[in-house]
Specification:
This protein is an alpha/beta fold. The chain has one domain: Rossmann fold. It is built from five helices and six strands. The chain has a six-stranded mixed beta sheet with strand order 3-2-4-1-5-6, with helices on both faces. Helix 1 runs parallel beside helix 2. The chain is globular. It comes from Pseudorhizobium endolithicum.
Length: 165
């Protein structure tokens, strides 16, 4: 069996969500109208640029699930899509452990929340590169594309692209 760790990581912050209604849990907030449009636009841009993860791992929060479904529709209805409870309110360590323990997928897309998704980018790419890529912070429906550098110490990943809707 050919086992490989990911050489490409996609970090997607969920699209814009609605404000919580009285009595509604943060976990249950859906995308708002603009968020649905953001998710569709970003998914189409990713496909146009050839960005195709082998697997998507998404937070189980409603706004992340809705963003993940938009990505899946644009990429491939048969794309492996996993929902992970541990990504909701996770620390960056959870993402890094998932990356380190993956040895059966060449590329992974994570769909999660800020500030953690930005912290993961900073840990993978370094603070200077992160600040250069997103000087005003990680926007909703922001997608970072990172490659593991060939022949390096592997300390920092390269930011290949950063897309927004």
């Amino acid at each position: 069996m050919n086992r490989r760790s990911p050489s490409r990581i996609y970090l997607l912050r969920h699209a814009r969500s609605a404000w919580a209604q009285p009595g509604e849990r943060d976990f249950d907030r859906p995308l708002d109208e603009e968020g649905f449009a953001e998710a569709e636009i970003l998914a189409d841009r990713a496909v146009d640029l050839g960005y195709r993860p082998v697997r998507i791992v998404s937070s189980t929060a409603l706004r992340c699930r809705q963003t993940a479904e938009a990505m899946r529709r644009a990429l491939d209805h048969d794309l492996e899509l996993l929902f992970a409870d541990e990504l909701y309110n996770a620390s960056y360590d959870v993402y890094l452990e998932m990356i380190a323990s993956t040895n059966d997928a060449e590329s992974l897309m994570f769909i999660g929340h800020n500030p953690t998704i930005e912290e993961v980018l900073e840990r993978l790419a370094g603070s200077d590169r992160t600040a250069a890529a997103i000087p005003t912070g990680y926007p909703t429906a922001g997608l970072a594309v990172l490659d593991r550098p060939q022949g390096s110490d592997g300390r920092y990943w390269d930011i290949v692209d950063f897309l927004t809707a």
